[in-house]
Design a protein that fits this description.
By secondary structure, this protein is an alpha/beta fold. It is 41% helix and 17% strand. It has helices at residues 13-25, 44-57, 66-77, 88-95, 99-106, 141-149, 212-221, 224-227, 229-241, 245-257, 264-273; strands at residues 2-6, 30-33, 60-62, 112-114, 122-124, 154-156, 164-168, 171-175, 189-196, 201-208. The strands form 2 sheets. It has a 5-stranded mixed beta sheet with strand order 3-2-1-9-10. α10 (245-257) crosses α11. The radius of gyration is 18 Å and the shape is globular.
């Protein structure tokens, strides 16, 4: 049995289509999605339509990511999101989703345990089994902690945008990396495959080339560099170069604020520091 694993699409439907072609060419029996389907890139509806197509044509499992939690929180409780700021990306995404999309995302669980081959369970989550935003970085104690804590022999999550296979005894952790926005200084889309050996699972991390220029052009044409301010421009540069400029700008702006409120001038300086036009 073969499982295809996708995570952190972030509305990059161009990259997602390329990953779908790879999964279909390799005859994956089950498609697993680990959350963060939308936000940051253009045309979130195109990504949602691809997810619905996958659901119609393949056996699929979906869970919720932190971006879905943000979108649903805004939908249910409102927020102070506004254009021209980093939250403009989320606001653009929300305003381009349908009631069907929101209902689909709302119905997703945060954690799910599956047993596709009937012999070896897999725990699925976005960040960790406790929090969608918990980061399980390479060589971090969090990875070891969760492998010790869970009952299942395999844990899979995303969120960090960094592919990883780690082991602790007979237990394994797999992060497929990000389909949509890279943080590895490479620009290929990332996904994973799991092969059943009759009992457990053997992971393979895969890089998938796609038309990066097309994704960047669509982001710019829809106005996200203006709607999301420095964040939007950082995402465009991140798509082109694979470096985690969006996070760098967040952390640099907070550093410049020195414990006070982060102002537009701090974002502007962060952008200059990282050569973001």
């Amino acid at each position: 049995m073969r499982i295809a694993v996708f995570s952190d699409i972030h509305s990059n439907h161009t990259a997602l289509e390329a990953c779908f072609r790879t999964a279909e060419a390799r005859g994956a029996d089950l498609w697993v999605f680990l959350g963060d389907y939308v936000s940051d890139c253009a045309n979130p509806r195109a990504t949602m339509e691809l997810l619905y197509r996958a659901r119609r044509e393949h056996d699929c499992v979906f869970i919720k990511g932190n971006r879905e939690e943000y979108i649903l929180g805004h939908h249910k409780n409102g927020s102070d999101w506004q254009y021209g700021m980093s939250t403009g990306s989320l606001l653009y995404t929300y305003r381009n989703l349908t009631a069907e999309d929101l209902a689909f995302l709302d119905a997703l669980p945060n954690v799910r345990v599956i047993n596709p081959n009937g012999k070896s369970e897999i725990c699925l989550c976005h960040g960790s089994p406790e929090k969608t935003r918990e980061t399980l970085h390479p060589f971090s104690y969090n990875v070891e902690r969760w492998l010790l804590k869970i009952e299942q022999p395999l844990l899979m999550s995303g969120h960090t945008h960094r592919p990883l296979v780690a082991r602790n005894g007979e237990k394994t952790y797999v992060n497929p990396g990000a389909v949509g926005i890279q943080a590895t200084e490479t620009v290929t889309a990332k996904m994973a495959f799991l092969e059943s050996d009759g009992r457990g699972w053997q992971p393979e991390l895969v890089e998938v080339p796609y038309d990066v220029a097309e994704a960047v052009a669509e982001l710019e044409q829809c106005g996200l560099p203006e709607l999301a301010g420095v964040w939007g421009r950082a995402i465009a540069k991140q798509l082109r170069e694979g470096k985690n400029y969006s996070l760098f700008c967040v952390e640099r702006a907070a550093e410049l604020a020195a414990g006070g409120p982060v102002l537009l001038e701090h974002w502007a300086q962060a952008a200059r520091d990282f050569g973001i036009d």
